[in-house]
Amino acid sequence: MAYSERIKNFSKIRDYMREFYLYGFKSRGEYTQKSARSYDDERRRMESILDGYMHFRQTPEGRNVFLSIDSRAVPHNPLFQAWKAKSFTDGDITLHFLIFDILYKPDVRRTLSEITEEVDRKLETFAEPRVFDESTVRKKLKEYVSEGILVTEKRGKTLLYRRSDDMWVPGADALDFFSEAAPCGVIGSFLLDKEEAHEDVFAFKHHYITSALDSEILCTLFLAIREKQEVTMETVQRGKGNVHELCVVPLQIMISVQSGRQYLMAGDKRVHRIRSFRMDNILSAVPGGVCPDYDVWRTEFENMRQHIWGVSTHSFSGERMEHVDFKVQFAADEEHILKRLEREKRCGRVERLDRHTARFSADVYDASEMIPWIRTFLCRITEIHISSPELQAHFLEDMREMYAMYGVEGGEGA
Questions:
Q1: Closest Cα to residue 136, out of 157, 158, 122, 119?
Q2: Which residue in 51, 80, 81, 211 has the fewest CB atoms around it within 10 Å?
Q3: The overall pTM is greater than 0.85
Q4: Cα pseudo-dihedral 19, 24, 27, 28, rounded to 10
């Protein structure tokens, strides 16, 4: 098979792009899961799609290839280009332009036979005209109707096709922001391609570009949530490579404000628990029928949300919750500390005890997720209680080590 720069199987290049960008620095011989030819083909495709971002480094082990993208200096996610390099056949592209030349505006309506005849007439001028039978044209029209590009109307017993009405599209600035900050931002990137060149007004301190690789699966899950459908997923254990197939009820997509990593919250029908799944560990998602007890799963999840601090990669239903509370002190001119507690409390509660003291408390499924955030108040914490003895002991030991490191007295009493 001849090499092509176009992408036929996105799931394959998705894995390679993630490897090159997140892990990188691997030589050709270290990619043992695929053949050497497959490695070369995917590398060449990425070089074509991501020109200017591919770099090479020669090491004793061989030539390493990696993606280098400074997300602070790049206003638009370059990984979106992969979605715009999908393969197509000569027949696909020919029929695409002919159909929209015939249905050139929304008020033009044609039957299947009329469209087929006009396609043939337009191709007659070529020396070796391509011929499309009516069944091929029908399949293409059906595909565009399912995508919402075309709509059908009935005139008596006759089915008519026409272009969808032109939609209002937000301004370029709104699309700039949506494409880089929202889930499935690749949709905004496609719309931006239709806009005139303009000056970018946004810069992102934290620009999580790798989520672009999960856009197709994410879109499938959003649609399943809207339609209350079950989904059959394939997931992989990173490092081990084990692939599992399971049937889940998608409930919500949650995004980490710290890492930008995306998670699916879903009911696992096999174990009857609500679990979280990292989006980059989901290999495929195929929607099924409507879940008859979807509302039961939804109610259970809404009750759980009140006690979820972060998104751990484990199940939640039926687990014992843990209690955390601590006191912080702040000076008279440090009201911003109290405001920060209020702003970042999530599912917790903040109580002001006096002019200079406040108490934070929360009941959560996994108190360990709170520890990094609690540590940011270390110099102000005067008292802390964690219902998990192991976690409490570990936290206090960390404090003693910090006291010892900085030579601060009082470490023994922490």
A1: 119
A2: 51
A3: no
A4: 30
